[in-house]
Design brief:
This protein is mainly β and about 850 residues long. The chain folds into four domains: about 130 residues; about 210 residues, Sandwich (Jelly Rolls), CATH 2.60.120.200; about 190 residues, Jelly Rolls, CATH 2.60.120; about 230 residues, Jelly Rolls, CATH 2.60.120. It contains five helices and 54 strands. The longest helix has 10 residues.
Length: about 850
């Protein structure tokens, strides 16, 4: 944080880019100074963090004037100050210091800035780092989920980098090198993507010479520790990891391995004796070539083996051995270069404590963080399933050479022509990618003889300039009839879409595409319509008589003559031989995250933030003529909207008193899906006999202003929940189930309305009401009302009670997904 007055800065948290003094370049510093310009004190870390990697930085000052800096959950330095006259009327600034010219404005990315009115403990800081936005400290009884990662986490190798020579430690500095050195070689394990891994990326080891290595792990591990990982193998007698002091002896080391029976085995050695020995292991074999979560927990001479979260065996060591700051190797015998691991490894973690059974299960169930739905197995939960794999897929991850491999298995290899440039994973969206300009292109062996509608084409693209009007991302244009391109078009103010040459049906995004950021375009040719999605969201469609003519070569980054070049980066191009559904497209983009999500956890103020990233922020209006006599208030203000709602279903919530309280979330285009959607909310009320709107764009001032709505007791069905949509031809369809949807007073209920393209469904507390209402597959979008929470747009049907965690999806959630949203609440993220 950074605070300043017109005189002297009071508190500064800075990175020392030519900052406090030249010797501190790139190092984090924490400064305090009182209002009199005296009492200046600063503390500075010893290690620069200007390494173009994300870091979590916390500065604390307690009542004893002790100043401390934490980086990535670990304390790095501390000191004390003599400030006596603090200022309380300053302006908080982020990324800017206007007074001290030696402290320049921040150059880089900043996220998740928080200020607490007290000094966080080391335990709280570790939770902040490990759980990020999923943890809300100090916001009520429901706010802080139990820790999914133990506070004693020492090192965490997620293997999510997808490329490069380094597997980074996400907690400490124990970064491991792939292979023997920093140069690519045959002893490097292979990066794998989410489709083959447990969580995001992982590493594959060939059983011959692949390994990773770190010289001297820090901090030194004691006699109490826990080691956890996901592995997938069919082998026996293979090392998983080893801590070893020297290739020439066994002193003060440990080994975690798969023994000759396929069982998990931990053994360690001092300078003369075994602690745990080679006769001890798990009871269960783990080499059946399926993903297994494994943990070994050591507490003195007691060792416990956990397989998939369950205690499998307990053993006793002959002696209690502690370890030095030794060499650390994943996947081989360091002494004689043997017993190399064969298979996949993901999410390796070392803790400095003996994890409890509950913590073991948390480690297993949460992967690297609370990011649920980050593996492709979650795609099976979609209403339409994950769909068939693409018929052509160019990940563009090769990083070198003149060939782009087709990872679909169909052999449609691409050849790099006119020098497109390989880029590293730090610049790309998924793994590596290619930069295009001028006449550069990738010419594939996929011919349109093998394509016919329906087809879906998707690609990630990063436009950098608009020097060319028509920039081909994927092209099927070689001068014949039915010529087409998926393009970025400058002449249309930077929109993206499907261009037909000389044939009707060209379709472009509604939204302009900003430069210098990643986007995903998805185009569908159904046979009679062209449909365009941008970043997982429907943009528009047009009828077409055009097909896909034969004999055309599919190119990436340009068309056949080389004069329609894309300027920028392209990544992960896929072609499917069917029309992907809205749910599948949303999943491809960000694992199906909501397009609007109001958590209502602010606890103060009138801005209700949309955490989806789509800027659908709402404005809260509260009157004092009803139950909220103290108006908006805070979570500590009685009889106020925030105070009465302080204990929500997840974190805080808002209390609506039924007499003028509501949230207006505006009319951003993203709030009006044209065909399919899901809308969910938690509600709690003591007044069940009310006719009240919960959320949606709906009005009684004119039918043309309606779109969709979830509600309580509308049309005199008091005490019952309902869901309505308005078709594009101005015809309303209302689902008012007569069973399974009645509510009782002062109880939290989860309500979800789903429109799947043909019928409406209503779910209450995860259960389908069992009744449906048919609609024509369209939902009114043009001229609709603003999205309202707690009332209709026409200032009627005000809600009386608590509302929490409203979400809007632009596709139909499946019954499985709805249960996950309900049961896991704010800890669940459909998304990365």
């Amino acid at each position: 944080m950074r605070s300043s007055t017109t005189g002297n800065p009071v508190i500064d948290l800075v990175i020392g880019f030519n900052g406090v003094n030249n010797s501190n370049t790139g190092k984090p510093s924490f400064l305090v100074r009182d209002n009199n310009g005296i009492g200046l004190k600063y503390i500075t870390g010893s290690t620069p963090i200007n390494d173009n990697q994300w870091h979590h930085i916390v500065a604390t000052r307690n009542s004893l004037k002790t100043m401390t800096i934490f980086i990535d959950g670990n304390e790095i330095t501390s000191g004390s100050d003599t400030m006596t006259n603090p200022v309380t009327t300053d302006t908080v600034r982020i990324g800017d210091e206007p007074i001290n010219s030696s402290i320049t404005n921040f150059n880089g990315l900043i996220d998740e800035v928080k200020i607490f009115p007290y000094a966080l403990t080391a335990d709280q800081i570790k939770k902040e780092y490990n759980l990020g936005a999923a943890v809300v400290i100090g916001a009520g009884a429901y706010a802080t989920p139990s820790a999914r990662l133990n506070d004693s986490l020492v090192s965490h190798w997620s293997f999510d980098e997808l490329s490069g020579q380094t597997a980074y430690d996400k907690v400490g500095n124990n970064h491991t090198t792939l292979g023997a050195d920093t140069n690519p070689g045959s002893d490097d394990p292979t990066w794998k993507t989410a489709s083959e891994c447990k969580t995001n990326g992982c590493l594959e080891f060939d059983g011959s010479d692949d390994h990773t290595y770190k010289n001297s792990i820090s901090p030194t591990l004691s006699s109490t520790l826990s080691i956890c990982a996901y592995i997938k193998t069919s082998s026996t007698n293979k090392y998983i990891l080893q801590l070893n002091r020297s290739p020439s002896n066994y002193f003060y080391e440990f080994i975690l391995q798969i023994n000759g029976y396929g069982k998990l085995q931990f053994w360690d050695y001092s300078n003369s004796n075994y602690g745990f020995n080679l006769n001890q292991s798990s009871n269960t074999a783990i080499n059946d070539n399926t993903w297994k979560h494994i943990c070994f927990v050591k507490s003195g001479t007691t060792g416990k083996y956990y397989i998939n979260g369950q205690l499998d065996n307990q053993t006793t060591a002959a002696s209690d051995i502690t370890y030095g700051s030794n060499d650390f190797v994943i996947e081989k015998n360091y002494r004689d270069n043997s017993l190399y691991f064969s298979g996949l490894i993901d999410e390796v973690k070392i803790y400095s404590s003996a994890l409890t059974p509950e913590q073991i299960r948390q480690d297993m169930n949460t992967g690297s963080t609370l990011a649920v739905s980050t593996t492709t197995s979650e795609a099976a939960d979609l209403t339409d399933g994950e769909g068939n794999p693409p018929v052509a897929e160019w990940k563009l991850d090769e990083k070198t050479g003149s060939t782009a491999n087709d990872t679909s298995g169909n052999g449609y290899t691409g050849t790099l022509t006119n020098n497109p440039v390989w880029k590293s994973s730090r610049e790309c969206k998924i793994g590596a990618c290619l930069e295009f300009s001028s006449t550069a292109q990738v010419s594939t062996t996929l011919n349109t003889d093998n394509l016919s509608p329906p087809i879906t084409i998707s690609a990630w693209f990063y436009p950098t300039d608009t020097s060319t009007n028509t920039q081909a991302i994927v092209s099927g244009y070689t001068g014949h009839t039915d010529r087409w391109d998926v393009i970025f078009n400058r002449s249309l103010n930077g929109k993206v879409g499907w261009l037909y040459h000389g044939i009707s049906g060209s379709t472009y995004s509604t939204n302009t595409v900003p430069l210098n950021t990643w986007h995903q375009v998805t185009t569908i040719h159904t046979g009679s319509n062209i449909i365009v999605y941008l970043n997982g969201q429907y943009q528009g469609s047009n009828a077409t008589s055009g097909g896909i003519s034969t004999g055309q070569t599919i190119r990436i980054g340009n068309w056949y003559s080389g004069n329609q070049p894309f300027n920028g980066l392209i990544d992960h191009v896929k072609i499917y031989d069917y029309a992907r559904t809205p749910a599948q497209i949303a999943y491809d983009y960000n694992r199906g995250a909501p397009i609007a999500h109001w958590k209502m956890d602010e606890c103060q103020g009138t801005t209700i933030h949309d955490s989806s990233g789509n800027n659908n922020h709402g404005t809260l209006t509260v009157t004092t003529t009803g139950g909220n006599t103290n108006g908006v208030g805070t979570c500590n203000t009685s009889t106020s909207a925030w105070g009465t709602g302080a204990s929500g279903k997840f974190g805080a919530s808002l209390n609506f008193d039924g007499n003028g309280d509501y949230i207006d979330a505006g009319n951003n285009n993203v709030l009006y899906p044209p065909s399919t959607l899901s809308i969910s909310a938690w509600i709690k009320t003591s007044l069940i006999n009310q006719n009240a709107a919960i959320a949606g764009p709906w009005s009684t001032s004119g039918n043309t202003q309606n779109s969709y709505l979830i509600y309580l007791g509308q049309d005199a069905s008091n005490g019952k929940l309902g869901f309505a949509i308005y078709e594009a031809d101005n015809h309303s369809v209302m689902l008012k189930p007569t069973n399974n949807v009645s509510i009782t007073a002062d109880t939290w209920y989860h309500i979800v309305g789903v429109a799947n393209g043909s019928v409406l469904r209503l779910y209450v507390n995860g259960k389908d009401s069992g009744q449906t209402a048919s609609y024509d597959g369209t939902i009114k979008t043009i001229g609709s009302s603003n999205f309202m929470i707690g009332r209709l747009a026409s200032n009627v049907y005000y809600f009386n009670g608590l509302i929490d965690d409203i979400r809007l999806y632009n596709y139909a959630l499946s019954a499985t997904q709805i249960k996950k949203v309900m049961n896991e609440g704010s800890a669940l993220r459909f998304g990365n």
